[in-house]
Amino acid sequence: MPARDCASWNTMVSGLARLGMLHEARETFSAMPVRNSVSWNAIVSGCVRAGDMASAEDYFGCTPDREDVVLRTAMITGYMGSGKTERAKEFFDSMTVRNPVTWNAMIAGFIDNGKSEDGLKMFVSMITSVEVQPNPSTLSSALLGCSNLSSLYLGQQIHQWSLKLPLSLNMTVQTSLVSMYCKCGNLVDASKLFEEIPRKDVVSWNSMISGYAQHGHCDKAIKLFNIMMKQAVEPNDITFVAVLSACNHGGLTKLGIYYFESMEKNYGVKPQLEHYLCTIDLLCRAGSLRKAVDVIQSMPFKPHPAAFGTLLGACRVHKNLEFANFAAMNLIELNPRGAGAYVQLANTYASMGRWDDVARVRKLMKENEVVKIPGYSWIEVKGVVHEFRSGDRVHLELDLIHEKLDEMKKRMKEAGYLPDLGYVLQDVGEEHKEMMLMRHSEKLAIAFGLIKTSVGSTIRVFKNLRVCGDCHNAAKFISLIEGRNIVLRDSTRFHHFSNGDCSCGDYW
Fold first, then answer.
1. Is 238 helix (H, G, I), strand (E, B) or coil?
2. Where are the domains of the chain?
3. Confidence check: pLDDT of 465 > 90
4. 3-state SS of 177-237?
5. What is the tens place of the pLDDT at every residue in 270-321?
6. What does pTM read for this prediction?
7. Within 288-383, where are the H helices?
8. Nearest CA-CA partner of 330 in 313, 312, 318, 315
9. Which DSSP state fits 475?
10. Helix 237-250 crosses helix 218-230 at what angle (to 10 degrees)?
């Protein structure tokens, strides 16, 4: 057998590493008579891909050229992948030469690790640097960061900046812009941009269908899906998550079940967990709790906590204690330290005035050291994000906000608003309950927006949890008495309030 040259050895190491055969790759690397930069990059990248950063660091420490930009970029990718963002930043800062891949690894790494602000700061540093120019991946990552932060202002700035570059004509960038506008609550600009994309791939179609679904425009979402089919664009699993979500938010139960049951037969897409979860939610919203339980029990996977969480939330709305207990017990068994099951069960009891049971659940939470995720809302005004929590005592302009809320409360009641005291989970007097409702984070953010934004402009508020029913009703009245459009995004969807109505038709 002829002797292998260095290139052959490198190909073998790289191939084994890509196949996940790290042990064999390391043995092959050790047997190499001669190694070059490609060899070292191959073995370090293989360790990074396998998540073995300890070995990657060992090899990196032995390489003869530790300034190699490809090698260092691989290490940055590995550190980001393992959540060691500070170590990745140290590596990046010590580099004398960087390429676009290096910058992209940092930007995407921060954003993937939930540090979108740091990722966007890195993006700004990149575009003001003379080292490199951004590419489509750079802009896609930055726009994702804007989506994560719900920062329409910054997203618009990036859009305007990109128009000066040929990159603005790139389909990946155009699709990312559509997605950003959808997720930041500006469906008008999203739709306009989507129509301007000359050649749309399935990702582009999915972004717009998902956007319509999130904003409650279920008819437009289904219509767009049908157009996509006529243009012979092959749907994928994400397409059907969007379609099922549209049916879900629009109360199109029969149509949603049809799409779910015909996915594999008519479109060749096998239902995954997300599709089952959408279908369970669809049935729960329609009040078909028994059918939802049947779907949960027939799933070809281990039941996911989200399935029982959805069922439990519906039990509160439909006041069904039998299925509430069933869902809660399963949810606690799957995630005993998670707050969701306890909170939802307590809410169900509270909605029925069973305060002894509420106290029992709270005691159980304390015994199991369960920590509830706090709800909060935020609003962006002139590029500055203002965050509020229920009963907020921190914001510098609370006195002004409370004054506005008290004024609105009086006018809302004159217009027919009745506080829904069932959304107060404490056993206190009615007057105290009303005061607590008016201090919910959504209302604080809306009031601040009314004070700080120009008359007639749209107010955009975001919340990390599902919007409370009383806040939803109040937002309708506020839109009426103030003559303002209010866009509120919660953990599930967008609500567009205008002239006393909501785009969801109170089906949410």
1. helix
2. 377-502
3. no
4. HHHHHHHCCCHHHHHHHHHHCCCCCHHHHHHHHHHHHHCCCHHHHHHHHHHHHHCCCCCCH
5. 999 999 999 999 999 889 999 999 999 999 988 888 899 889 888 878 888 8
6. 0.81
7. 289-298, 305-318, 321-334, 339-351, 355-367
8. 312
9. H
10. 150
